[in-house]
Amino acid sequence: MTRESVVIQTIVQIADNLVDDYDLIDVLTVLVQRCTETIGVDAAGVMLATPGGDLQFIASSSESMRVLELFQIQAAEGPCVDCVRSGTPIVNRALTEDDTRWPRFSPRAMTQGFRAVHCLPMRLRGTTIGALNLFRTHEGPLGSDDIVVAQGLADVATIAILQHQTSLSAGLLNSQLTNALNSRVIIEQAKGMIRQALSCEMSEAFDLLRTFSRDHNEKLTGVATRVVEGELTPDELRVRPRPRH
Asked: What is the reported pLDDT for 167?
C-alpha cells in the first residue's frame, strides 16, 4: 500500500470515529500507528491538555514512548511539553546536542534509544489542544514531505476531537478525558496480565493488543477490557485470522 493510500485510510478511520461510539483512545491510537507506518520515525505519542491546562498522556506506539511521555509530564520538561505550551513545532532536534534546554529529558530519552525528536502542535485557529510527538533512533533531518504528512494527520485528528467537543459541556469534556485516562489504565492492566502469562516484554504485550484490535476491527480499549475480565486469553491474542481468498 502506498503512503498516499495509508494517509487516506487514516483520515477515513478517524472520520469513522465521529459517527458512532466516539472513542478518543482509538482516534489517537490510529494517529500514532499511522505515523510510524508512513513517516520516517521509530515511535510516536500524543499528549493532550485538559480544560484546566494540565497535560495528560493519551496514546503511544510503543512502551518506551509511553515511559518517555510520562516522564516529560512528571518532570514538566521536554520538547512535547514546550510544543503544547507554545503552540509551535519543534522539528529536527538532535538530543545529543550540548544543550541545557532539557537537562533531565534528553539523557532519559537517549537511554530509551532515541536520538532525535520532532513535535507538532495539535492546533486549530489559535487553540492548541495537544501535541503529536515523533522520535527517531538516529539523527538527521526529517524530510519536509514527512513533516507535512505528520502535521496533516495531526490536524485531521485535532478537527475530529474539537468537532466532537463542540457538542459537549465543560463537565462532559472533563468526563470524556477521565474516561480516556481510565481506558489507559485498563490497557496497562491488560498489558501486565499478558506480560505475566506469556513471559514477554510490555512492548510485546502492547503489540499483541494492537494487532488483535486491527485484525478484528475492534476498539483497543474493548480488547483490553476483555483480557482484564477474562473473556479473552493472552494466548488467543496470538492467533491471527486466516486471510480471505
From this structure: 47
